[in-house]
Amino acid sequence: MSDHNIxxxxxxxxxxxxxxxxxxxxxxxxxxxxMGILEDAAASHENAGGSEAEIASHKAVxxxxxxxxxxxxxxxxx
Length: 78
What we know:
Elements: H1 3-25, H2 31-46, H3 52-71
């Protein structure tokens, strides 16, 4: 993977995390909805098909999203 793709992915993750936090802070989406979004995203990658390399990439993405869910990084839990 090129450096550009890596940096694009990190930027996208940071932007999405900031958006989820802002939606929660503005009382637009409650924590349970945000957690549901993250869990749905992880599940879509866990169940994705493709070549062995694509499946491995999807599994890695799902693992990362599940770590975010477990760590509470995208929701300021009270």
